[in-house]
Amino acid sequence: MTSPYATDLDKNPANYQPLTPISYLERAAKVFPSQVAIIHGASRWTYSEFWRRSLRLASALAKLGIGKGDTVSVMLSNTPPMLEAHFGVPMVKAVLHSLNTRLDAPILAFQLDHAESKVLIVDREFSRVVKEALALASVKPLVIDFDDPEYGDDAPYPRHERIGTLDYEEFVASGDEDFVWSRPDDEWDAIALNYTSGTTGNPKGVVYHHRGAALMAYTNTIHAGMGRYSVYLWTLPMFHCNGWCFPWTLALTAGTHVCLRWVRAKAIYAAIADHGVTHLCGAPIVMSALLNVPSADKRTFPQTVTFNTAAAPPPESVLAGMADAGFAVTHLYGLTETYGPSVVNEWQPEWDELDKEARAAKKARQGVRYAALEDLAVIDPVTMERVPADGETIGEVMFRGNIVMKGYLKNRPATEEAFEGGWFHSGDLGVMYPDGYVQLKDRSKDIIISGGENISSIEVEDAIYRHPAVSSCAVVARPDEKWGETPIAYVDLKPGETVTEEDIIAHCRKHLAHFKCPRTVIFTEIPKTSTGKIQKYRLREIAKEL
Amino acid sequence: MTSPYATDLDKNPANYQPLTPISYLERAAKVFPSQVAIIHGASRWTYSEFWRRSLRLASALAKLGIGKGDTVSVMLSNTPPMLEAHFGVPMVKAVLHSLNTRLDAPILAFQLDHAESKVLIVDREFSRVVKEALALASVKPLVIDFDDPEYGDDAPYPRHERIGTLDYEEFVASGDEDFVWSRPDDEWDAIALNYTSGTTGNPKGVVYHHRGAALMAYTNTIHAGMGRYSVYLWTLPMFHCNGWCFPWTLALTAGTHVCLRWVRAKAIYAAIADHGVTHLCGAPIVMSALLNVPSADKRTFPQTVTFNTAAAPPPESVLAGMADAGFAVTHLYGLTETYGPSVVNEWQPEWDELDKEARAAKKARQGVRYAALEDLAVIDPVTMERVPADGETIGEVMFRGNIVMKGYLKNRPATEEAFEGGWFHSGDLGVMYPDGYVQLKDRSKDIIISGGENISSIEVEDAIYRHPAVSSCAVVARPDEKWGETPIAYVDLKPGETVTEEDIIAHCRKHLAHFKCPRTVIFTEIPKTSTGKIQKYRLREIAKEL
C-alpha cells in the first residue's frame, strides 16, 4: 500500500525550485539595493549595480549564443569582473571556468582545449601568457579584454597589449539589464569548472553544481561566523575553488567585497582599517606577510578580523602574532573536489586553558566536517571500513555529501576511481581521534603546497628528468617559513656529468611555471628500497633538517 | 549532442545525500558534545545527551515497528520530549504530528484519525482532553505518558491522571543509544505534519519534507542573526509550524534551548537574565505581557535580545517599550504552509531617521522573502499576472520555493487549489511596493488571529447557527490590545426570540475550544449586499470603533 505521505504530494513549481546561488544575489539586489557590494580601488558598486551588471553580462553572452553547458573561461585577478562572472555566466546556464593566473601557457592551452572554451575574458596583466596559450590551443574562444581602470601606475607588474576582439566594459554595456535570467533546469547542473594541479598526467577538471554552490554558501556563513553586512577582503584568489565559494556566500548576507589585485601586506592593512574588513581567507603565506610587514605599513583597527586559512596548520608563534595584530585565525581543510575547505578545526573554548604544547597539538588537527558535508571519515581504502578512532591508525581521508564535485570533466576513469565505494577519496592519509577530529598524516599524492598553490612533485620530477645529465631524481616538500613549503629536488647525475644547482633550476623554468621550480637542488644518491622504490619519507626528513 | 557536463557526472552516495536536519544534530553532538543543548527547569542535557536520547527514542519506536510514513502524534508543551521528537521520529522515517494543545477533543480526534496516528505521546497537562479525543477517534494509537518531573507545585494547571500504556522516560530508556538512524530515502520524504485551523470544513494537514526543514534551518540562522552558541527561549509553541523550525535550526549553531512550559512574563525575564537568552519568538501578546509585567517580576540583562514576532505588525509604542526593555523586534510573516514565517520586514538602517509616522508605515509592511524562499509575489489570481508594484493594487500574496509544503495530506483537491498555476496561494490579500516589500491588506480567508492562534470565523459562525434562536450571524475580528484580535459576533435573532450575550457565549463553549468563542456579541441586523452577501468589511469597521 502506498503511504498517504507519498500520494498526491508531488513536486511542482510552487514547492520545488532548483537551488542556485544566483537567487541570493537577486534577493540582495532587491532588498539591499543601495548597500555597497563591491569596493575596488576608488570605485564602488551597490548591490543593485552588481546585479544589473551581472544581468548585462549574461545578456551579452546570450547574444553571442552562449547557453547551457557552454564554457566561459576567465583569466582574471580578484577584480569586479570576476565577481560578475560568478553570477552572469550561470545566468545563461553556462559554466564558469577560472584559470589559475600563475600557470604557464601549455597548461592554460590544455585547459582551454579540454574545457572546449567558447569565451575567454582576460585581464591585461595576463595577456602575454594567454596569447601564447591561444597559439598552442586548438579552440578559438572569443577573447574579451578586461582593461582595469584601477590598475594603478605603481603596479608591480606591467599591463600587456590587448589581445581580444572585444573590450569587457563595452561587452557588458552591450547587454540588457532587463535580461531575464535562467534558473538551472536542475540543481545538479554544472555551475563551475576548476582544474586541479594534477599529480600525474594532465590536470583534471572538477565540475561543481548549483546545488553544492548554494549549500556551500549557507554553510560558509555559519563556519565563518558571517553576519549581515560583513566586509570580506579578497586575499584568496577567486580562481581557487571559486574563492572557496565566498563570491556566492556574501550575497546571502549582503556583505561587501573588497577587491585586491595584488596581495601585499600594506594594502591589506589599509583595506582593513579603511573599509572595516571583518573577514578574509588566505594561505599561511598571507599571515607571514602580515606579521613581517614594516611598521610603517601596518595599521591598527578596532574590529577583530576573522582569518580563515587552509593548508598546513599555523604554528603557535604565528597564531600569537596574528592575535596581537587583531586577527582570529581558523584553520580549515579541503580540496578542489570539495568546493574548497569543507573541514574546520572547530576550536573548543576549553582548549584555551591547555598548555602551549597541548594547544599546538589541537591546532595541528584538520578538524570536523562542515554542516553541509554529510560525512567525513578515515577509511581503509582496501576494506572500505572506518579505521579505529584512536588517533593512530592511518587511513585515507574520505568525504561524502552535497559539497563534493559532480566528478571530473570528460574523465570517467578518474571520476570512478575518486568515488569508488561511494566515498570521495581525497588521497590524503590521516587519522581519526576519539573526539571525531581528523588529522592529516601524509599526502599520498605527493603534493607540495607552496604559497597556497598545489605543486605536483611528479610534474617537477618529469621536468628534471628531461635534463640529459640526470640519472635519477626525487622532489619533495621542504618546510618554508614564508611559503609554507617549497619544492626541493634530489638529483643523481649520470656518471661523469657535472651540472650546477642553477643549471637545474634554469632548466625547470623552461618547462614549468616559475612557482613550481625547485628552490633547492641537492646532488646525491637517491635512497631507494630493496625493490627500487624511492624512499621519499627519508628525503622529507633530510629536507626538514636543512 | 549531449553536453560533457551531463555525461558520466551522475549522482552517487559520495556526492549526493538527501538533505535532512537530523544531520545537523549529529554534527553538533560529535563536535560540541558537552555544550548545553537543553535547559528545562533545574535539568540540563548536553548535545551528546540530546543526541543519544533522540537515538533511544528512535530505537524504541523502531522496536514498536514504527517506520517509514507512520505518524507519531504528540500533545506536548515546550519540553525536552518535544525537542527529542523532532529528531527521534524522523530518524525512523516516521512523520511528527504536533497537536495544538489548545484544541478541543473533537478536533483532536479528527486529526488523530485523519493522520492515522500510530503512537501518541501526551503530557499529563493534557491527558483529560486527549482521553476524550481518543474516545471519539477511530484510531487506537499506542499512548505514552510524559510525566514532567519539572512540572512544579506552583503550576497554574493541574496534572491529570495518566492515560497511556507506557511512560515516556521508560520508553526512551528501552531504546538503544547505538541505534543506527535512517536517512530519508529522498529529501522530498515527509518529516512533519501540522494541521491548519481550517477555514471551512475540516482542518487540513500540511506536510513538510526533509529538504524544506533543512533549508529553513539555514535561512533561519541568517534572518534571526543566530551565531554559534545562541540561547533560544521557547515562548513560541513548538506545535506551531514546528516552532518555526527552530528545533532544527539550533542544531546548526549548537545553540541552547531554554524550555518554557507556560509563557509568563516573570519566567521569561528570569530565563533571559539567568541563562543569557539571545533569541525568542512569539505572538504580539508575548510582547504585551513583557511590557505590562509588575516591576517586581521584571529583570534587567546586559544583552540585546532578538524578538521575532509574526501576525499583526507591532505598534510603534510597543516597539519603543520593547527597545527600552532590551529587545530588538523583527516582524515576520508566513503561514503553516510555508514552514512558518518565510517573509521578513528587513529593516533598512536609514529608516531609523524617518519621522514617527513614516517609520510606522515601514513597520506595517510584512516585507521580503527569506533567502530560502525563491519568490514572493502579489498576483491577480484570475490572470495570474503580477500586480503593479505600486503599493496600491491589491492582489493575492503568493509564494514559490523550497520552504513551501508538499501539500495537504489526503486532500488532493485542496492541494491542487493551493498550488494552482505553480504558485502557493496564501489566501491573503496584499500590495507590492516599488521597493519589493509586501503589505497585507486583508485576509480573504476570514481568519481571526487571537493570541497567536488562528480562529476561523466560519467555524465560530457554524457554532452560533446551531443555537435555535439565531436567524443570521457573522463573526469578524475585533482589535484587542492584549490578544491582537478577538472574535466578535453579530447576531440577528429570529422574530420573538430573546437571548443574552452570555447565552450565546455559553452556547459556543459547548461546541468550540474556549479561545475560539466570541468575547463580544452584538444583536443587530446584519448588513448585506443586494445579492445577500454579508458585508463583513462594515462589521469590521464597527468592531474597530467599539
From TrEMBL, chains A, B:
GO terms for molecular function: ligase activity. InterPro entries: AMP-bd_C, AMP-bd_C_sf, AMP-binding_CS, AMP-dep_synth/lig_dom, ANL_N_sf. Its EC number is 6.2.1.-. Keywords: Fatty acid metabolism, Ligase, Lipid metabolism. Residues 459-533 form the AMP-binding enzyme C-terminal domain. The keyword Chloroplast does not apply. PROSITE patterns: AMP_BINDING. Residues 25-409 form the AMP-dependent synthetase/ligase domain. Belongs to the ATP-dependent AMP-binding enzyme family. This is Fatty-acyl-CoA synthase.
